[in-house]
Amino acid sequence: MKNAFGAPQSLLVLGGTSEIGLATARRLIARRTRTVWLAGRPSPALTAAADSLRVLGADVRTVPFDALDTESHEERLGKIFTEGDIDMVLLAFGVLGDQARDESDPVAAVRVAQTNYTGAVSAGLVCAGALQAQGHGSLVVLSSVAGERARRADFIYGSSKAGLDAFAQGLGDALYGTGVHVMVVRPGFVRSKMTAGRAETPLATTPEAVAGAIELGLRRRSETVWVPGALRMVMAAVRHAPRALFRLLPV
């Protein structure tokens, strides 16, 4: 299998300017990856991201992709697979939104949900079908610990990640035995441009640490990866805490 042991030869990043996506690409290029597709909205940031990977020795290509334009997903993402096999797809796009604002702005709240969930369902199914058709590959889905239990502070974002997480788990079960491996990654608070200015939570991590966990998870053929690993036990306790107690927790 071309993408065995967490060393894919080719990588497609959905969310081409994602800091986690780029950190993962850099790590994999250092091992074995030679072809990288960055899918995202055309912008100077996407161009700069591609250039930053080219200097590492990879053949990097960009493709226009908008999570909200689901009608274009099959055509645009499908074309990538006609250029050659893709060993790994990393679904790395998403938005945090602004909870305080979005609660009073249903249109903005729906945009968060459509980006993080509806767009991911569409792109995920298109890529899963293409991976299955070629007979091998990994689909890595960036979820979040926020999806484990809705918090007052970010339940709009958290609910969208909960939906994505459930979808990815089900997709993994549906593809079991087909040669396609689905891995769900659940980071905690990630220090990045997206979270700049937000209060850090305990066990905060970095894009580079998430990238390392992704690589290790691929080598182990893991189905679920927590970053950092200690969050698995923490969230098990949070998930089962009585609701009255949960409301009082500083989470």
TrEMBL record:
Natural source organism: Streptomyces zaomyceticus
Gene3D superfamilies: NAD(P)-binding Rossmann-like Domain
Similarity annotation: Belongs to the short-chain dehydrogenases/reductases (SDR) family.
Keywords: Oxidoreductase
GO terms, molecular function: oxidoreductase activity
A Pfam family the protein falls into: adh_short
EC number from the UniProt entry: 1.1.1.333
Transferase among keywords: no
InterPro entries (alphabetical): NAD(P)-bd_dom_sf, Sc_DH/Rdtase_CS, SDR_fam
Major enzyme class: oxidoreductase
Protein name: Decaprenylphospho-beta-D-erythro-pentofuranosid-2-ulose 2-reductase
